[in-house]
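[Backbone geometry]
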Amino acid sequence: MNVDSINKVARARRSARLSMLGAAAFALAACSGGGDGSVGVGGGQDPDPVAVDFPIAYTKGPLFDDQMQLQSSTDLKRLLRFNVGTDLYVRDRASPSAPERNVTMSVTEGMGDVQGVEISPDGKKVLFAMRGPFDPDLDDEDQPTWNIWEYEIATGTLRRIISSDITAEAGQDISPHYLSDGRIIFASTRQRQSKAILLDEGKPQFDAQDEDGDEPAFVLHVMDADGENLHQVSFNQSHDFDPTVLDSGKVVFSRWDHAGGVDAVNLYSMNPDGTELELLYGAESHRTGTDGGEVEFVGAREMPDRRIMAILRPFDQPDLGGAITIIDTPEYVENTQPIAANAGLGGPAQVPATPSDVRTDDAPSPGGRFSSAFPLWDGTGRVLVSWAICRLVDATSKIVPCTDEMLADPAALAAPPLYGIWMYDPRDQTQLPIVIGEEGVLIGDVVAAQPRPNPQFIADKVPGVDLDQNLVAGNVGIIDIRSVYDVDGKDTAPSGIASLANPALATADQRPARFLRIVKAVSLPDDDVVDLDGTAFGPNRSQGMREIIGYAPLEPDGSVRVEVPANVALALDVVDRNGRRISARHQNWLQVRPGEEVKCNGCHAPQSGLSHGRSGSFDSVYAGASATGVAFPGTIQIGPAAIIPDAGETMAEARTRASCQTDSSCPALVPSVDLVYADVWTDSAVRTPDAPLEYRYSALTTAPPVSSSCMTAWTAKCRTVINYEQHIHPLWSVPRQTLAADGVTVLEDHTCSKGGCHAPVDAMGATAVPAAQLDLSDGLSPDQQAQFNAYRELLFADDQQELVNGALQDVVVQTGTDENGNPILEPVTVAAPMSAAGANASQRFFSEFDAGGTHEGWLTPAELRLVAEWLDIGAQYYNNPFDVPVN
């Protein structure tokens, strides 16, 4: 049976609890210990007389497997599960006296799994994901897949949304939700559009794994009510899940952001067609759990007042639940950061949904824990919840309530969770039982078949009406940044954006930011497709593999407007005139749908504690052109070369608009695989225009990392793929000789890996210490046989060597004496000249080639550019998994 791996400590804790439960003498009633029958927040246990007029649907199945281990993974990151024996149950009334019926047994045969329960806006249909029945004779990969199913309450009709067995089994589909037009949005491993991109890249189609490499990434898809027109709408590298539809028609979902060093589940929003995707809430609000502990945001649902109710819990929670919070997302992007329109509000945006002490750590939670919450839209504020009461196992192996005395007893252990369904009423802070919990049973998702207003309809954008047909045909969109000097709503240009934008006041060399680099995530297959180990990546495995899509010049005001490929996960770098990144790595994946234009004000300082990934987070600090029909200050004012803006336009917007008016291919919008700058702004009557700037791959004498066709004309399929062995290592053996006038006599030889330089032999072939302790010669590393020695020397600290009796030996120094008085000898470490943090973190290398450096002129500008961009994206050994040799 496919049981997800569970934290070893939690597993041991569970086993200890279960052994004690075997000797338990009594079962605790569904209360928290008050003599008045209270349930932790006051009030009695009588059924809610107002809550019996609508059906409810919920999941119920075994908590443990046949080895008495938790069936369900405790980790939010693991979505692919098989909790065998879980089914969907329906009660015609929300009352403990109403009989329940198993509505999926006919399909699962009691050996299936159900999750992601949703209700139609009219309250007549239940939508859910189901798999099964489990076959003990099949391997994990051959078990039935997750499919989307629908149950009609009035008729008892059960149907799979996708009727074709072949289509249904082509992916894992979970977390369904109705859109306002009856279509269905859901999370899936199908990755329909992403797999089409793989074919464009010349790769086989495969299920791209999440950024931990543990399971296929679930991303959002949409299909018609009959399963037709299935297509992908989100393009994360890790999971997008739990979509829900707001009254506005927008889709809100949980996104696992896991690029680079980021590891968090945040709330995002978008249109049903995937356009306007952006952060909604939470990127800087994760330390809002118990005692400031880290929590994630899942299970989001809109309340009638437009706030969001969500579950707060850490990634790994042995009790499978957390606390309910209410988030004021209309007013806030973070707990203490309002959107710009509400500047001055101090928060908090998050408030507990219940007054009880619900802990989000692993300690026993006096207020119990919640696994799901479904707010009602009947004007009462009530919430239908799956709630586990706080219970302990005492020294006599009895299950007892979490009284203050028992919580203080170090011998007491947390009992396994006992989830039941309750109606929480905030008006008198009562929780009333609807479905009584059962020992060893997990009651998870719950919904009420209560009608609510149908959300507004947001139509998919249409080519030729909402979208540029040429962009759609080219499978591209547009990214428009007002100014990269606008950082979290502050003008960070050295002399201010307005001054820097004026060519009469500042030259190009005085502008810190010169180009925008567009970077694409590389999807990685599972080990059955390509067996990758850590040596295929760089020193920082979390950067994965990356490709460079292209570059666009930044205008004097820091603006840029450029085409980018649609339907891929993208990141952006701001680079200087040398092609070296000056911005922090963009660790959140962007997406653009075909024909879509994504606009943002500027950039973000990662350590600021602020979020800017949501429109409206900050007001733009740059107003753009002051008037229509008047050239920007200091630029060409009249004539065909003049670029005349409309009021409010940035230089990039004005330039690209003018480009499209004179050439239907809009050349100013198209990026280049090379860094190319031409001064189109400076009025020669004021000063001499800036000199052109070009770093072209065609100038390399070694193999370029991109096709010749892309060097000629960029398309959405262009990829710059830099592998160390193929593209970086050959630079060290390129002949770099200065010849005499006769063209034969060698006056100087600066070939990097030649004897006398960075090689373990001198010019005469005798053993020697490589210059600067850096060996760039050919050969595999003695420390890592899957990588070249030069790669390790460049990026990893090494031991200093010296020549002793004609042989190279490590230099050792005495650092002390041992207990017997013998000297303790330690090698002397030599720092690596390069860093996978980027080119500007590798100054020990680049300073040698900069003006005045000892190696000035020894590497060409094109070569230095190639090394810089390789370091900026992570210094990976390979950036294409299919280039990795098969062992």
Notes: The first strand starts at residue 56 and ends at 62. Residues 1-45 have pLDDT under 50 and may be disordered. The chain has 13 helices and 47 strands.
